[in-house]
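Much of the work behind modern protein science is quiet bookkeeping, done one molecule at a time. The protein below has been through that process, and both of its lines are reproduced in full.


***
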Amino acid sequence: MASDQIFLHALTISVIRYAQKQGMAEKEIYRILNLDLTQMDLSALQPAPEQLLQLIRQVSQETGTPFTGLQVIRFMKLSDFGIAGYVLMNCRNMAEVQEKYQTYHRLMGNVTRLTVNVAEDSVTYCWKPVKDLSAEMERIVMEYLVASIVTHSCEMTGQKLPVTAVEFSWSAPEDVSEYTRLLGSRLLFDRPHTALHFDRSYLTLPVRTANSELLSVFEGHARDLYRKLIGVGSLSEKVSMLLSERITCLPKMESLADELGMSPRNFQLNLKDEGTTYLELRDQVRYKFARDALETDSSSAAEIGLRLGFSEPSAFFRTFKRWSGKTPGAYRAAVRAANIGPGRRSKPSETPTV
C-alpha cells in the first residue's frame, strides 16, 4: 500500500467506526466506498479521497452536525498506521516517540510535510500539505493529525498532553466547542500553517507499552520500508528531502549515510559525482526554509534562526545575508512591500551564494 494510501486508509477506518457508532447502516457505508458487503476484511481498503468525502458528508447529514477530524479520533488506533504505529507504541519515552515520529512520518502517510521544532521550553509540530487536497479534505486531515497527537500521547503516558497553543490554517467555525474540549482554549485560526505547541517537559515521560525487543524488530522493518520509499531519484534529491523533513534538527552526515545504507566515504563520493556536497545541500535546504519562514511566518528573524540551529541571531543574520545579499529584515520587508506571496513572487535562486 502506498504511503499516502496508508493515511487515507487509517482515516477511512476511523470514519467507518464513527459512522457505525452513529447508527449508519453498513450497507450504505459499503455502497459509498464501493465495497463488497460480503468481504468484511478492510485491511486492503484504498478509498479515493472523493469517496471518503462522500461518506463524511453522508454521516454529517444523518447526524445533523458538521463533521470534523476531531470527532473520529477516539475510533483511531495507532496500529491503523501500520509498522510506524507499532514503532511508536514500543518506544521508551516520549522523547523517543518524538524522534521516531519525525523519522518515520512519511511511512504514516505522505500527505503532509512535518517540521518539528524543539525549543528550550516547548515543542512544536507543524504540518503543511504536500498533496493537492480540497480545502475541506485538508481541514479534516489536519484536525485528524492534531487530535491524534493529543489523544495518543495521553494513551501512551497516562497523562494529558500540556498543549500551550494550536494553530489552524483555516477560519474559525461558528462553534469551536469540539476544538476547546480536546485542545484547550488557546486556538489560533487563519494562520499560515497548522501547528501544535506543547510543553517540552512532557518528553521525559515514559511510555506505558514500551518494549525494547519489539521496538528493535519493528524499527528494522520500518527502516527497510523507508529505504524503499525514498528509493526513487538521485542521492542528492533523497538527501535534500530528508534534510527538509528534519530542518530544525538536522542529522549529521554520518548518520544520514548510515540511514541510506552507505558508508560515509561512499556517501560523499556519490554526492561528488552528482556535483554537490552534504554541506551545500544542507545550506540549500536551510536557505529555502529561511525564505519561506520570512515570507509566511510571523516569528521574528531571531526565532527563525534558532529553529535552524544558529546559536546567536547575529550568526543567522550574517549567513542569510551571505546567502541572499539581504539581511532577514530587509528580505521580509521587500516581500511585503511587493505585496506578493510565495506562490507568485519572482523566485530567487534555489542555491545560496557561497
